[in-house]
Specification:
Elements lengths: L8 H8 L4 H22 L3 E4 L5 H10 L3 E5 L11 E3 L12 E7 L8 H11 E12 L19 H11 L13 H10 L2 E5 L1 H8 L6 H10 L4 H11 L2 E8 L4
Parallel strand pairs: 1-2, 1-4, 2-3, 4-5
Antiparallel strand pairs: 5-7, 6-7
Helix pairs in contact: 2-3, 4-6
């Protein structure tokens, strides 16, 4: 994770040690690699930002043949320790322009400040570099960390109450999902642009999605005309896929 640990650690610890978790991370790595293979092959310095357990990081190394350094703020969460470092994504221990390609897979919602996160990406990303950013939607039907319907939709006091009522945690104050529009606006303030490849991911990688409802919804959306489909994805897709790059430096 990044920026702050996940509250309700006992629930999350059960999740990451469940029998199917490692297999699900392998499938996620295959999805990431399918979308990022070209960028990975061209990059000299690759980092995984918010690498979590490190399972996806190591799987991506095997798939790509590239050495990948992982950063995560929570040392206790790391399972694969090789080439992993403890670091805050708002203060990366790298020089300006040091990252040729980065992976930020479902991590933005854990940083304390979205603006500081994008400012740090702008500083650390090399000219012509890219960061693959997978971002959850605040209005996804099922909140992905606690698996509670609509949890991220509500004001914080109600979300906290729902979490306590479920028995899965005490406070929702360290997860900060937002909207498609706010992600684009925050990136733009720091000279970055987000190339949205969600439509491409749906068209080419839908069978790699872990979520059965997600696959069914993706197939339903896929029959819509392109402009309508893309607008609907901006508003209602449970997750978006972006490549982050400098706006004026390619």
């Amino acid at each position: 994770m990044s920026g702050a640990g996940v509250s309700g650690a006992s629930f999350y610890e059960r999740y990451v040690t469940s029998p199917g978790y490692r297999a699900s991370r392998a499938r996620k790595a295959e999805l990431v690699y399918a979308l990022c293979a070209e960028h990975l092959s061209d990059a000299r310095r690759v980092v995984d930002l918010g690498a979590g357990t490190g399972i996806i990081t190591r799987a991506l190394e095997s798939l790509s043949g590239r050495r990948i350094v992982g950063f995560d703020i929570d040392r206790s969460f790391i399972q694969e320790t090789e080439r992993m470092a403890v670091a805050d994504l708002e203060a990366l221990p790298v020089a300006d322009g040091a990252i040729d390609f980065g992976i930020a897979n479902h991590v933005y919602e854990h940083v304390a400040s979205l603006d500081r996160f994008f400012a740090e990406l702008a500083r650390a990303l090399a000219p012509g570099g890219r960061v693959y950013l997978t971002a959850g939607n605040r209005f996804a039907p099922i909140e992905p960390h606690y698996r509670i319907p609509t949890l991220s939709w509500w004001p914080r006091p109600i979300a906290d109450w729902l979490l306590r009522w479920s028995g899965r945690g005490e406070s929702y104050d360290d997860i900060r999902f937002t909207t498609h529009a706010r992600l684009l606006q925050s990136a733009e303030r720091h000279g970055l642009e987000l190339e949205d490849v969600t439509d491409e991911a749906l068209a080419t990688q839908l069978d790699r999605y872990d979520s059965v409802p997600g696959r069914l919804a993706g197939r339903a959306v896929g029959v819509l005309p392109g402009p309508v489909r893309r607008r609907l994805l901006d508003l209602a897709s449970p997750q978006w896929f972006f490549f982050v790059r400098h706006r004026d430096r390619g």
